[in-house]
Specification:
The structure holds two protein chains of two kinds.
Chain A: E1 4-10, E2 13-22, H1 26-40, E3 45-56, H2 58-73, E4 77-81, H3 85-93, E5 102-103, H4 106-112
Parallel strand pairs in A: 2-3, 3-4, 4-5
Antiparallel strand pairs in A: 1-2
Chain B: E1 2-6, E2 9-17, H1 20-37, H2 41-62, E3 70-77, E4 81-87, H3 114-121, E5 124-129, E6 135-142
Antiparallel strand pairs in B: 1-2, 2-3, 3-4, 4-6, 5-6
Helix pairs in contact in B: 1-2, 2-3
The chains are: A alpha/beta, B alpha+beta.
Chain lengths: ~110, ~150
């Protein structure tokens, strides 16, 4: 199942709930378009909830990095929430775990944007 | 083409189209064989991902989605290992010229992590040029007791 996205507002933070597989093709393009669309609407505090992401490949990792830099270049922030062990392991071996701000608890993540 | 059992174990062979659906099929075939061999869940994920990254390289960067070019997949299950070869009909690439994705200045690059992940997840990784053209990668994963 390709990645599916839905977004909700918690205060001034936009939480993006992602589920499924973020892989080359539909999965990674859904993520790219989703982040672009939210930024185009003026949302600059993005929290990507990856708790229901079952699989991510190097293309998916690339989309996370691309989203992170695109949001930062427009003066915003993109942070990660609820990583599964596999996604966390992937970010660690690619040395990206220290690049992203990662949270296990939504309330703490939302507060961190203040 | 097809499946057979030999002295080296069971073998599955396919000539796949240069489309993304072939990536899914190769991943499925390799993981099914690995499951039969008794690889643990974590290794199944690593094998699936390594095959997936190799297939993407073959379909996207090697054959460039060319409808006239095929990807040759073999999956061989031995007593102590799974071996997967993936051959394309592309221009080839220089393994030594690939940038290090862990270098500080490359960390925020969108691409360039595929080969690194394959190496991280498999026990052996070899690349060879095919004659008259193309590239073949060979991935091997050993069952834990033999490592």
């Amino acid at each position: 199942m390709s990645a599916k996205l839905s977004s909700r507002q918690v205060g001034d933070v936009t939480v993006i709930d992602v589920s499924g597989r973020i892989t080359l093709g539909e999965g990674s393009s859904n993520l790219r378009e989703g982040i672009r669309g939210l930024m185009a609407q003026g949302n600059k505090k993005l929290l990507l909830n990856l708790g229901d992401v079952s699989y991510i490949d190097s293309s998916g990792i690339g989309e996370l990095v691309s989203g992170f830099t695109s949001v930062a270049n427009q003066g915003g922030q993109l942070k990660l929430l609820n990583l599964t062990k596999r996604v966390k392991d992937l970010l660690q071996i690619t040395k990206l775990y220290t690049v992203f701000e990662v949270y296990d608890e939504e309330a703490a993540a939302v507060r961190s944007f203040a | 083409m097809g499946e057979n059992a030999s002295s080296e174990g069971r073998k599955v062979e396919r000539w796949l189209d240069s489309v993304l659906d072939s990536v899914d099929e190769a991943e499925r075939l390799a993981v099914e064989m690995a499951e039969e061999l008794g690889f643990p869940e974590d290794d199944l994920h690593k094998i699936g991902m390594a095959v997936r990254e190799s297939m993407v390289n073959a379909v996207v960067h090697g054959n460039r989605y060319n409808g006239r070019k095929k990807v040759h997949l073999t999956v061989i299950g031995g007593q102590d290992r799974l071996a997967v070869t993936i051959g394309d009909e592309g221009e080839g690439f220089d393994l030594g010229a690939l940038p290090d994705p862990l270098a500080e200045h490359n960390l925020l690059h969108q691409s360039g992590r595929g080969i690194f992940l394959i190496r991280a997840f498999m026990d052996e990784f070899e690349v060879r040029r095919l004659v008259p053209g193309g590239t073949e990668v060979k991935l091997v994963k050993y069952l834990e007791k033999k490592r």
